[in-house]
Amino acid sequence: MAQTRKEILEFIRAKSAHPMRMKELARALGIPPEEYREFRGQVKALVDTGELVKLRRGRIGVATEMDVIVGPISVNRSGVGFVAREGEPTDIMIPATQLSTALDGDRVMVRLTGHLGDRPTGSVVRVVERTRRNIVGTFQKTPHFFCVRPDNPRIHRDIYIPSSHTAGAREGEKVVCRLTVWDDPYVNPEGEISERIGFPGQPGVDMLTVIKSFDLPEEFPEEVRNEGEKAAARLSEEPEEGRLDLTGECIYTIDPADAKDHDDAVNVTRTPRGYRLGVHIADVSHFVQPGTALDAEGFKRGNSVYLPGMVIPMLPESLSNDVCSLKPNRKRLTFSVFMDFDRAGKMLSWEIRPSAIKSRAKLSYEEVQEFFDKGLPEGAGRRKLERVAENLTTARELARLLSARRFAEGSLDFDLPEAKITLNEKGEVIELGNRVRLESHRLIEEFMLSANKAVALEMFRSAQAFLYRVHDRPDMEKLEAFSAMVARLGYRFPVSPTTKPGDLARFLETVKDKPEAEFINELMLRSLKKAVYQRNNVGHFGLAFTHYTHFTSPIRRYPDLLVHRLLRMRRPDGKYSPAAARRIPAVIDHAGKHCSETERIAEAAEREAVKVKQVQYMARHVGDFFGGIISGVTGFGFFVRLDNLGAEGLVRVSTIEDDYYRFDEQRYALIGRRTGRMFRLGDRVEVGVLSVDKVNNEIALFAPGLPAQAKAGSGPKGKRKKKGWAEAQPPKAKTPARTRTAPPGYGRTRKKRPR
Q1: Helix axes 365-374, 389-408, angle to 10 degrees
Q2: Architecture of the domain delimited by 67-129
Q3: How far apart (Å, rounded) are the C-alpha atoms in residues 3 and 379?
Q4: pLDDT of 690-701, one tens digit each?
Q5: Residue ranges per domain, the chain?
Q6: Per residue in 599-654, pLDDT tens?
Q7: Angle, nearest 10°, between helix axes 22-29 and 5-15?
Q8: C-alpha–C-alpha distance, residues 317 and 444, integer Å
Q9: The domain 623-727: what is its CATH number?
Q10: Share of the chain above pLDDT 70, in %
Q11: Is 163 exposed, middle or buried (0-12, 13-18, 19+ CB in 10 A)?
Q12: Which one of 144, 222, 452, 742 has the largest count of C-beta atoms within 10 Å of its C-beta?
C-alpha cells in the first residue's frame, strides 16, 4: 500500500479536524477497497502503540490531541507511578489508586487529570504493552490458596497461583511465575509457575534469581553456537588484499589480569609534530554477518552483562574468547584508527583502516602501573615488559596530555567508587571493597575516548547516517534542583540555560576534598540525562565532545559492531550506496533504541547483583562496628555508606531513643529536639550492623552510644556483640533501606567503563 504508518499518522495530525471512523479515514486518504484490510492493520498497529486512540463508537483520534500520553511507567516502592513525557522535564505522577493493572515497566496510556503543585497527575487508561510477563518471587502457601510474592518491591500485588499450575513448587522456593490473567485492578493477578529456581542459600540461586528477574539470556541456542564455530573458521580464509599488515609493529593489550576477551590493542610513537596513536580493535564484523542467527542473538542481547563471578556474553566464546580476542603472538584481524596529535595533545588528523596485528604482549593494568611506578621489574615479567617499555613510556606522556586537555575543555570525571567483590569457589563473598582506579586505567580510557571521537568525526564529515553515542544537555529544572540541593550544604552553584559542562567540572573540583564530595558527585550525575544511542548527533555533554560514538568494544557491545559495519559499507568516496543510504537510517534508529534499553537493563541487573552480594557479606557482620559517611538524610532516618565496603544501610529514627529527631530539609540533617544532636549529610559516623534482611536486600544500622543500642550490649569497633545480638530483629517500618552502588567490575572484570 502507498501509505505507511508514518504517513497515516501525519495525515491525521495535519488534516483531521476531529476523530474519524475507520472508513471515513480511509476515504479521506484515498485508500482503494483492495487495500482497506491492510490499511486497517496499519491503523490498528498505531492504536496498539498508543500513537492513536480508539474512542467509543469506533472513532480514531491522535493521542497527543486528547490529553492522552503513551509511554513506559516507572513505579516506585511506595506504589506511585511516573510516566515520562517526550520533550518535557516533568513526569506525570500516577497515584497508586490510578494505576489500574499497570506494572512497573509496562507501556501505558495515561489520561491527564490535574496537577499536584507543578507536577501533572494522571490515571492509567489501559496497558498498551505488558513488558513484564515473567515475575520472579517466593512461592507461598496459605490455608486457602497458593501465591507468589514478587521479589521486585515495585510490584505491589501477590500473584494467585491455581493449584493445577504450581509445577510442584514448595513453600519458600524461588520461582518464575508467568502472568496469565489480570484484567481487574480490584483482584490479584493470576499466573502459573513456569520455572523453579531453587531455595535461597543454595549455590548459584542468588545470581540465577537476578538473571531471571531481569529476563537476561543464558545459554546460546545450538544454531548460534554452531554458526559461531563456523564463523571462527573464517580467520584462516581472510585474504590479505586491502588489509593493512601491522604484524611487525610493537602493539600490545592492557586489560584486567583475569580478562579473556581482549578487544583492543594500542601503540604510540613520537613524530616530528608530536605523537601518533594507533588503536586497534577486534574486527568482529568480519565474523558476525548480518542476517545470521549469530547476529540476531547478538542484537537481542545488545551487550555483555557482568555479574559477580560470571559474565553473560553477547557472543559465543568461540568468538569472544578466541578468534576475536587479540591474544599475544597470534595474528588477529582488526580495525585500526591512527591519530596524530601535536605536543599539546590536540588531534591533528586521523585515518581508519582494516588491518591485521600480532600483539607483542598481554599486559595487566597492575603490571603497567608497577612499571610506571618502579620501572622494569625483576623476574619473569621483565622480558615481556622490555619489549614494549619505550612504547609504554611514550604512551604515558600522550595519555597525560590528552587527559589534561580534555578536562581543560570541560569534560566531567565523576570517578565514583566501583564495587569490587571477591568470591570463593562456592560463590560466597569473602571480601568487599572498591576498585582502585590506576593511571594505567586512565591511559586506556583516554585512548579509547580518542578513537571513538575520531570515528564519529569521520562519519559526521562524510555526512552519512550514523549511530552516535549522545549525552544531551541537562534539563534546567533538574539543574536548578541540584543547585538548590547543594545550597543547603553551603555551596553556591548558579545555573542558566547556557551552563556548560566546564561549569560543572569546576564546581566538582572545588568540593573534591570535602566529606560530602561523593554525595555531590552522585547528585550531579542523577541531575544529568542518560547517554543513549541515536542517529541525531546532539553531542556528548558529559565529555564535552561535539562528536562521539562507541567503536572500541564490538565483542561486548552491539552498537560498536554496528559502527564497524557502517564503516565497512562506505564506498571509496566515503558514501553509502544509494540503496544502503535508504535502508540504513531505519536500521540505526531501531538498533539505537533497542541497545539503549538493553544497556539500561544490564546496568540495573548489575546493581542488583552487587546489592545481593553486599547484603550476604554484611549478614556475617551483624553486631560489628564500621565507619562511614552519611550519604542521605530523610524524615525516617539517614543512610550511611560504609568505608571501603561500598555497602549502604539505614539508621532509622525509630532506633534512636535518646531524643525525638526532626528532619531539617534546609540543612539536610536530623536534629534532636532536646539534645540538639545532629546527623548531617556528609558527616562521618560510626555505626553498628543491627540486622540484615536477605529477602528485601536491606541493611539496618544503628548509631552507637545511644540507649537503643545499649540494650544489646557493647563492644569495640569491628568486634561482634555479645551472644544474642545477632538475633536482633529489624524495627518494623514501611520504608525500606536502600543500597546505592556504582556499576560493578568483577568476576570476569568489566574492561572499561562505558560512557
Answers
A1: 90
A2: Beta Barrel (2.40)
A3: 72
A4: 999 988 889 999
A5: 5-63, 67-129, 134-199, 222-470+536-605, 476-528, 623-727
A6: 999 999 999 999 999 999 999 999 999 999 888 888 899 999 998 888 999 999 98
A7: 100
A8: 24
A9: 2.40.50.140
A10: 88
A11: exposed
A12: 452
pLDDT for position 168: 94
Which regions of 207-303 does DSSP assign to beta strands (E)?
244-245, 252-255, 264-270, 274-282
Q: Which residue has the cell 544509494?
A: 578
DSSP string, 23-60: HHHHHHHT--GGGHHHHHHHHHHHHHTTSEEE-GGG-E
Give 723's pLDDT tier (boundaries 50, 70, 90). Answer: very low
Q: Cα dist. 278→231, 265, 336 in Å?
A: 27, 8, 7
Query: What is the helix (H) or strand (E) element at residue 527, kind and residue range?
Result: helix 517-527
Q: Are 376 and 385 in contact (CB under 8 A)?
A: yes
> What is the signed CA dihedral for 589, 590, 596, 601, rounded to 10 degrees?
170
The CB-side HSE value for 80 (13 A sphere, CA atoms) comes to 7
Q: Residue 166: CB partners within 8 Å, gap ≥ 6?
A: 139, 146, 193
Query: Looking at the chain, how many residues does it have?
Result: 755
Q: How many helices (H) and strands (E) does the chain have?
A: 17, 33
Note the pLDDT tens digit of each residue in 529-557: 999 999 999 999 999 999 999 999 999 99
Measured CA to CA, the distance from residue 229 to residue 147 in angstroms comes to: 44
Tell me whether the CATH fold assigned to 67-129 matches the one assigned to 134-199.
Answer: yes
Of 167-181, 342-356, 567-581, 664-678, which gets the smallest average pLDDT? Answer: 664-678
Contacts of 645 (CB under 8 A, 6+ apart): 432, 433, 614, 617, 618, 626
Residue 85's pLDDT band, with cuts at 50, 70 and 90, is: confident
pLDDT value for 743: 32
Topology annotation, domain 5-63: Arc Repressor Mutant, subunit A (1.10.10)
CATH code for the structural domain at 134-199: 2.40.50.140
Model pLDDT for residues 185-236, shown as the tens digit of each residue: 999 999 999 999 999 888 899 999 999 999 999 899 999 999 999 988 877 6
Measured between alpha carbons, how far is residue 332 from residues 89, 245, 284, 324, 735 in Å? 47, 10, 10, 7, 54
Amino acid at 31: I
